Amino acid sequence: MRSTFHGIEVSKRGLFAQQSALNTTGHNISNANTEGYTRQRANMQATMGLPYPGMFASIEPGLLGTGVNVTSLQRIREEFLDVQFRTENKHYGYWEARRDGLQKIEVIMNEPSETGLQKVMDELWKSWQDLSQNPESLSSRAVVRQRAIALAETFSALTTSLNELQRDLDNVVQTKVLDINSMAKQISNLNQQIGDLVPHGYRPNDLYDQRDLLLDKLSKMAEIKVTPGENGMVNVTIDGQPLVNGREQVTMAAVKNEVTGFYDITLGEEPFTPRSGSLLGTFEARGIATVGADGSVIKTGPVPDMIKRLDTLATTLAAEVNKLHSTGMNLNDIEKRKTDPTAPLEGLPFFVDANDPAGKAPPTSAASMKVNPAILTSLNAIAAAKPEKNDTGEGTSFYGDGRNALDIAAIKFDMLALVIDGTGKQEMSTLDDFYRYSIAQLGVDSQEAQRMEKNSEILTGQVDTQRQSVSGVSLDEEMSELVKYQHAYNASARVMTSMDEVLDKIINGMGRVGL
Length: 515
Fold this sequence. Notes:
Blueprint: H1 6-30, E1 40-46, E2 68-75, H2 79-109, H3 117-133, H4 138-197, H5 205-221, E3 224-228, E4 234-238, E5 241-245, E6 248-249, E7 252-256, E8 263-267, E9 270-272, H6 277-286, E10 288-291, E11 297-300, H7 302-325, H8 331-339, E12 351-353, E13 369-371, H9 373-377, E14 388-389, E15 395-396, H10 403-409, E16 416-419, E17 426-429, H11 431-471, H12 475-509
Antiparallel strand pairs: 1-2, 3-4, 4-5, 5-6, 7-8, 8-9, 10-11, 12-13, 14-15, 16-17
């Protein structure tokens, strides 16, 4: 038999259930702009009817309903879309980091432009051409010297900027490792909180959202795999190696390698090499260093490759100019051989290594290239002339002879064998074509990285849009839900008022006939 207050109990349950649904809807609306928030839904279920079926229960037809309860507050989220998003996100992170590194190199090289290395080389060859027409002109000689200084300074500035970019990218690797550690620590802390709540019957949906947001951010840095653990916790691997095991975090560290000069990464004190994500993109842009059997360090990647090509260009150009300049005759040589055809030539190299105290060794890199101090001291030291050989192998020249300057200017068109430092790779090319190819290859790589980044961004965005269509908060939808639950709440309140009136009539009105 039902209770006298059965109707009030049913109404009370209805009020509580609709109030819980209203609170959930309000929570959704409040977090409509919260990053990583997943909308929630109050799942309702009718409570057990009366009488409860059993051997001694009443056999009157039908069950009397007892109202409704909220059985769970469910997160509306599709796990498959999470996995798909994180898979695409690692590709997006990789191409974004690679594009960023290549674009920074393009900014440094600044080609084509009126201030780039190509323009400076062109001006140098032109100054030698002009000097060949007027070899005694101090102004023409001053232009040659100034163009050569500008070339050496440009080589040095480009190499310095690329080395600084390499150091910056190396520091970015360290920063990303710190970020991964921080996120792993937060995930393990959230695991601990969730693991403490779930066994007691709670559903910590907001903690799940925070953890999923961290996993999404982590997936951009490297490939991650998330597997469920006990009591709502998860285990996370990064590029196949454990990072988070339930409540425990495996520490990642960036350790400076004294041999290569780069940061190496360890995970749990074991070597770790990234295979995907923005961490790999930064690794490659900075350069990947390997130590050979002989102890030599070989660095490969966009930045070290460009440094190598600049070194090859600078040392080859210096060698070719020095070869002709050291066999030519400057104004001092011409004056000496007027009286003594056997007088030794000064034989000065035009470009020298800045690190050589004697100032005679050829430059060993683009950064160490500079004009011979003797030429900086005296314009007469520029050898624009060629000796006229006689029977004894000696010879004199004359004022107005600019044949050596003309030969140096013609180096621009010579086919040369340029050997890339550290690789042994040889390229047959003119100096200008070698540099143009280097810039063209950089442009092609950068364009490809931009294209792939755009494609990855579109794919990641499409998956995220699908995810948001399932998990995101729609204010229009929530407002309609709000109206629905509000009306249901009002109706339950009206039922309770009606039952109160009925009971009042029974309690206070019955048995009072005739009074």
